[in-house]
């Protein structure tokens, strides 16, 4: 009887030990899986921030390249406005406007592919809300300022009114105003890009 009791007790202890071991193994597996998942999320977050930083840096460099060229175009437009005569034949008005921009208006557009990819992924949920909010404001400002002004400038070359008879002077004034606005926006966005790059660099260095 005593032997059977000891044996039963030993079996109970063995079962409890094995059950505890199984539970521990399951919990450990879940913990390791969660840790691996978190490490992967952190790696994805870092990679996303690196891509955004590279994109902002490229946009900043592009604006720094645009500025002197757009200032030169502005000088050409102002010179054309101040010339004694603007009696350009209507058939030549568009060509005359285009001669003021020997390399076109821009040679490359600002980038936002990394930002679009981040928004469409689930990585943003693993980022600080302040970071996402700042980036959203930055890219929105890029769209409603520089990109919008560029579209308004490009419209000039394709609208009937801009090359209508007697409208050249008015078109040049419009170009001058938009170029002045564009140059100011470029300088402002360069500063905004610098702030965004600094903020991301700080996060990457943590």
Q: What is the CA-based Rg, rounded?
A: 32 Å
By secondary-structure content and strand pairing, the structural class works out as mainly alpha
The count of β-strands is: 0
* Helix/strand order: HHHHH
Helix percentage range: over 70%
Described by strand count, sense and barrel closure, the largest sheet is: none
Flag low-confidence runs.
none
Number of helices: 5
Measured between the Cα atoms of the first and last residue, the distance is: 67 Å
Number of domains: 1
Strand content: under 5%
What shape does the CA trace take?
Answer: rod-shaped
Overall mean pLDDT stands at: 83
Transmembrane segments: 12-32
Keywords: Membrane, Transmembrane, Transmembrane helix
Using brief descriptors, characterize the structure shown.
membrane, mainly alpha, 5 helices, 206 residues
Describe this structure in words.
Keywords: Membrane, Transmembrane, Transmembrane helix. The chain crosses the membrane at residues 12-32. This protein has 206 residues and is an all-alpha fold. It has one domain (41-205). The protein is 78% helix and 0% strand. It is built from five helices and no strands. The protein has helices spanning 2-82, 93-99, 113-120, 129-156, 168-204. Helix 1 (2-82) packs antiparallel against helix 3 (113-120), helix 1 packs antiparallel against helix 5 and helix 4 (129-156) packs antiparallel against helix 5 (168-204). It is rod-shaped. The termini are far apart.
């Amino acid at each position: 009887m005593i032997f059977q009791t000891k044996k039963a007790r030993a079996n109970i202890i063995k079962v409890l030990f094995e059950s505890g071991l199984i539970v521990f193994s399951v919990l450990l597996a879940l913990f390791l899986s969660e840790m691996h998942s978190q490490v992967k999320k952190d790696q994805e977050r870092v990679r996303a921030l690196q891509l955004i930083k590279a994109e902002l840096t490229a946009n900043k460099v592009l604006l720094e390249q645009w500025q002197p060229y757009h200032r030169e175009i502005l000088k050409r437009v102002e010179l054309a406005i101040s010339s004694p005569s603007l009696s350009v034949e209507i058939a030549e008005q568009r060509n005359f406007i285009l001669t003021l921009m020997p390399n076109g208006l821009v040679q490359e557009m600002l980038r936002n592919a990394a930002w679009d990819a981040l928004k469409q992924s689930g990585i943003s949920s693993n980022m600080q809300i302040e970071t996402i909010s700042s980036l959203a404001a930055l890219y929105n400002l890029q769209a409603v300022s520089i990109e919008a002004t560029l579209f308004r400038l490009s419209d000039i070359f394709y609208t009937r009114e801009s090359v209508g008879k007697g409208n050249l002077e008015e078109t040049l004034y419009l170009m001058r105003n938009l170029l002045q606005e564009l140059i100011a926006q470029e300088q402002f966005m360069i500063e905004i890009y610098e702030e965004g790059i600094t903020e991301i660099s700080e996060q990457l260095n943590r």
